[in-house]
Specification:
Largest sheet: none
Number of strands: 0
Keywords: Membrane, Transmembrane, Transmembrane helix
Mean pLDDT: 94
Strand content: under 5%
Shape: globular
Structural class: mainly alpha
Number of helices: 4
Distance between the termini: 23 Å
Number of domains: 1
Order of helices and strands: HHHH
Helix content: over 70%
Length: 103
Amino acid sequence: MAATAQVPTAAIAATGLVGGYATARWTKKRPLGGVVLAAAGVVAARQWHARVGGGAAAGLAGLYVAAFAGSHPLAKKVGAWPSVFGVAGVVAVASWAVERNAG
């Protein structure tokens, strides 16, 4: 049986942060943005757990949540979109680095 290709976890996490914000902003429904953010976070966390184990997955999931929370005060200094793209980039690079060094 052929293995299924998975979307890179770094892309899932970054998309969750950017997509969650975009959904909330464009629909004007913050809870809907939260659903997007949470859904991507769950998918990313499951993949992190499978690829790098529970400890590293917990650390990356914590970073994901901290990035979401930290994007709010950062947005007051640099603007909303630069903040969201910045924290998404940090989470993506961390995810890539942890997964790369786990193997």
